[in-house]
Automatic annotation (TrEMBL):
The active site is at E58 (proton donor). Belongs to the cytidine and deoxycytidylate deaminase family. ADAT2 subfamily. Its cofactor is Zn(2+). Catalyzes the deamination of adenosine to inosine at the wobble position 34 of tRNA(Arg2). GO terms for molecular function: tRNA-specific adenosine-34 deaminase activity; zinc ion binding. Zn(2+) binds at H56, C86, C89. It catalyses: adenosine(34) in tRNA + H2O + H(+) = inosine(34) in tRNA + NH4(+). This is tRNA-specific adenosine deaminase. InterPro entries: APOBEC/CMP_deaminase_Zn-bd, CMP_dCMP_dom, Cytidine_deaminase-like, tRNA_aden_deaminase. The keyword tRNA processing applies. The gene is tadA.
């Protein structure tokens, strides 16, 4: 499955969420969980604000969707996130049975989809996640670069 107009629209939404994280002094990553082209839940990094190392944008969205649906299995959903997920987040996506992952910027050092690790292809995971990379990669990457440049 290639990149669709819906993918681009939802990634723009995730980028707005990433900007919220940035405004709060967090690493600017945003995520939105979608089912049948409707937003189930959203999240942005809140690690510092929540004093919680697991408060990544993806985890926040997954937790909110689970509560909204009354089920930890988030079947037939797509997660849009502005940065390639880490090991922890890929584990959570697999446990939640998320069908599809779409991400913007690559994370060559910590990305667990197709860079540092390729966990979406790992035989030991109980659920395989379809994935698409590079949706609005440039603006997603630029937001992160500018954030870290301002910090240095």
């Amino acid at each position: 499955m290639g990149i669709t107009e819906q993918d681009v629209a939802w990634m723009r939404y995730a980028l707005r969420l990433a900007q919220r994280a940035e405004q709060q002094g967090e690493v600017p990553v945003g995520a939105v969980l979608v089912k049948n082209n409707d937003c189930l839940a959203e999240g942005w990094n809140r690690v510092i604000q929540d004093h919680d190392p697991t408060a990544h944008a993806e985890i926040i969205a997954i937790r909110a969707a689970g509560l909204a649906l009354g089920n930890y299995r988030l079947l037939d959903t797509t997660l849009y996130v502005t940065l390639e997920p880490c090991v922890m987040c890929i584990g959570a996506l697999s446990q939640a049975r998320i069908k599809r992952l779409v991400f913007g910027a690559d994370d060559p050092k910590r990305g667990a989809v197709c860079h540092a690790l390729s966990l979406c292809e790992a035989d030991f995971l109980n659920h395989k996640i379809e994935w698409q990379k590079g949706v609005l990669a440039e603006p997603c990457s630029e937001l992160l670069k500018q954030f870290f440049k301002a910090r240095r």
